[in-house]
Specification:
Blueprint: H1 4-40, E1 123-125, E2 131-133, E3 151-152, E4 160-170, E5 175-179, E6 188-193, E7 205-210, E8 222-223, E9 228-232, H2 240-255, E10 263-267, H3 271-276, H4 278-284, E11 290-291, E12 298-306, H5 327-337, H6 348-351, E13 361-366, H7 376-385, E14 389-394, H8 395-398, H9 404-411, E15 415-419, E16 435-440, H10 445-458, E17 462-467, H11 475-479, H12 484-487, H13 489-506, H14 515-529
Parallel strand pairs: 5-7, 8-12, 9-10, 9-12, 10-11, 13-14, 13-15, 15-16, 16-17
Antiparallel strand pairs: 1-2, 3-4, 4-5, 4-12, 6-7
Length: about 525
């Protein structure tokens, strides 16, 4: 065997020989690669490169298009940096749109028009030069109507327009345009109040136009694959009952069928509303809510509904709903949104029946200004005497802009009790079989059942109605027994209408509850709970 030194010497000579042979080969190979790259145009492009698009950051089903030489603006541009590279997109990003309602929870890096909960599709350019998703299936939830009439103004409560096919929203002019699938339309125009109470003159209107053959359609700046609902806030909202009766229940009735795959465009937006009810809204749509009035885009959708369907005061009539929705469905939907116990879980007293010290729990809502319980402390003592654990809350708490903690407090109760008023609307957070103890002031008996009794029963709750006597009303001291206000409330309503009822019986009246007279109603509530 040779020595290690000799072996290293021979290995060195072999390495020199191999380097002499391989060097020319490497030179030829590198030259070939450079020629190939030059002819295929794979060099990094500079600012003057011919490509019309910047890298697109896709977080949802609607890709975004960068500004082009034609002046087309994106709905919401974003800048994307490649990992490990200092090369950046050529176009500067636009400012994030102010119209997006900030209360909706989004990932910090998301700057698209709505929250990125879906997978990221590939992007392509359509014939109009608008970026859209690639491979998207045709929208089939509605088909263009055979007639050109897209708005129904016949309902006494609400107006509704449904545009199937090619619908384009222009927020800053409060307009929705319908491009008919045929070119035989003569063109029509409607102006509707896009909420469930069309007779309120201060609800903002939205104009719906069906274009004719001579009218050019506005160019899309943002193309969407999902449907959209355009509706108005304002009206009588800021009262919990009206929040639910005028907006949330009608919105559920209109939007629930889309299972979250629908975008909301709100005119006369109220940021406090979208914040307070963000949990409910985010379970009706998984897309970012658009402030319609400040939206500077022309958004194109395959299906747009303008307005909200409504069946009645705090009510849903299954025979009028193609999906057979009920108020029970609405209550269970709301409870699920807040993560409350499942429908099969009984009211708290029944769920803990093995606890010998367990008492039925009642939430007592004490109104702050009108229809107050003057002797609230005495009422609490009486409830405790009847065996209740009492959770007393002020009306201001039920009107709080934060509901998450409060709904869990309601869920922990077997019953909710209060004078006729908006606070009782929180019965929607009770469990199935929960009890609503409804104290009805003098002179408003005619409206009590429709406002709270029927909705409670329709939601699977028990309703106990207690109408106070004139002796329990502070109106007796003010007007006396012989005044029409005391002895004939119906005559007051007939002569002055609901306005007079509101002025006298809803605004001037407080309650001094007689617990002895009230006792049988409480025993009925206890029977329901037991």
């Amino acid at each position: 065997m040779g020595s290690p030194k000799a072996a290293r010497s021979k290995a060195g000579q072999g390495g020199i020989w191999r380097r002499r042979i391989s060097a020319p080969f490497v030179v030829v190979l590198v030259a070939a690669v450079l020629v190939l790259v030059a002819f295929t145009g794979q060099f990094v492009q500079g600012p003057d490169a011919s490509s019309r698009f910047t890298p697109v950051h896709v977080e949802d089903s609607i890709p975004r298009r960068a500004p082009t030489d034609q002046g087309l603006e994106t709905s919401d541009s974003s800048r994307q940096e490649g990992e490990g590279s200092d090369q950046k997109a050529d176009a500067e990003p636009d400012e994030s749109p102010d119209e997006a309602i900030r209360e909706q929870q989004q990932p910090p890096e998301d700057t698209t028009e709505y929250s990125g909960k879906e997978s990221s599709p590939q992007v392509q350019e359509d014939e109009e030069g608008i970026v859209k998703e690639a491979g998207s299936t045709p929208y089939t939830k509605c088909t263009p109507p055979s007639s050109m009439t897209v708005c129904d103004l016949s309902n006494p409560r609400f107006d509704i327009c449904e545009l199937c096919g090619d619908a384009r929203t222009i927020g800053q002019s409060s307009t929705v345009m319908y491009v008919p699938h045929t070119q035989t339309s003569d063109g029509e125009e409607w102006s509707i109040r896009a909420q469930s109470r069309k007779n309120l003159p201060w609800i903002k209107k939205v104009t719906v136009k069906s274009l004719n053959t001579s009218q050019p359609a506005p160019r899309c700046t943002s193309k969407h694959a999902m449907p959209a609902i355009v509706f108005a806030l304002g009206g009588l909202t800021a009262n919990v009952w009206h929040d639910f009766s005028d907006v949330l229940v009608p919105l559920f009735l209109t939007a629930r069928e889309f299972d979250g795959d629908v975008q909301f465009l709100i005119t006369n937006n109220q940021p406090w509303f979208t914040k307070k009810y963000s949990t409910i809204l985010s379970n009706l749509t998984r897309h970012t809510i658009i402030d319609f009035d400040s939206d500077d885009q022309v958004r194109c959708y395959p299906h747009v509904i303008v307005g909200l369907r409504s069946h009645g005061d705090l009510g849903i009539y299954p025979n009028l709903s193609p999906q057979n929705y009920t108020m029970m469905d609405f209550r269970l939907f709301v409870r699920a949104a807040y993560g409350l116990p499942a429908p099969e879980v009984g009211i708290p007293y029944r769920a803990d029946r093995d606890d010998p010290d367990k008492k039925p729990r009642v939430m007592l809502i004490d109104r702050g200004k009108t229809r107050r319980l003057v002797n609230a402390a005495y009422v609490v003592q009486g409830l405790e005497w009847f065996g209740f654990e009492v959770v007393k809350v002020d009306q201001n708490k039920t009107d709080s802009t934060s509901l998450d903690d409060f709904v869990h407090l309601v869920d922990s109760c077997d019953a909710i009790m209060g004078a006729h008023g908006a606070g009782l609307t929180n019965m929607v957070f009770l469990r199935s079989g929960g009890v609503v103890v409804h104290v009805v002031p003098h002179g408003v008996e005619f409206m009590a059942d429709a406002f709270y009794g029927t909705p409670a029963r329709d939601m699977g709750l028990r309703h106990v109605n207690y109408s106070i006597s004139p002796e329990e009303s502070t109106l007796l001291e003010k007007y006396g027994w012989n005044h029409t206000v005391i002895k004939d409330p119906e005559a007051v309503r007939s002569s002055g209408g609901l306005e007079k009822v509101g002025e006298v019986y809803m605004s001037e009246q407080d309650i001094v509850l007689n617990m002895t007279r009230f006792g049988p109603s409480l025993l009925k509530a206890i029977d329901f709970i037991m």
